[in-house]
Amino acid sequence: MFISISLIYEPFLNILLILPSPLQIFIFGSRLKFGPDARSLIITLLLIIVPVIIFCTNVARNLIDEISGNIAGYAILMVTVVFTIYVLLLLLLTSVRDPGIVPRNLHPPTEEICYDSSASIDVGRQTPTPRLPPAKAVVVNGVPVRVKYCSTCLLYRPPRCSHCSVCDNCVERFDHHCPWVGQCIGMRNYRSFFLFISSSTVLCIFIFAMSALNIKFLMDDYGTVWKAMQESPLSMVLMVYCFIFLWFVGGLTCFHLYLIGTNQTTYETFRYRGLERPRVYDRGCLKNFQEVLCSKIKPSRNNFHAYVQENEGGDSDGNRREKVEDDREIGGDLLKISQRHEANDA
Question: Do the beta carbons of residue 48 and residue 84 sit within 8 Å?
Answer without folding.
Answer: yes
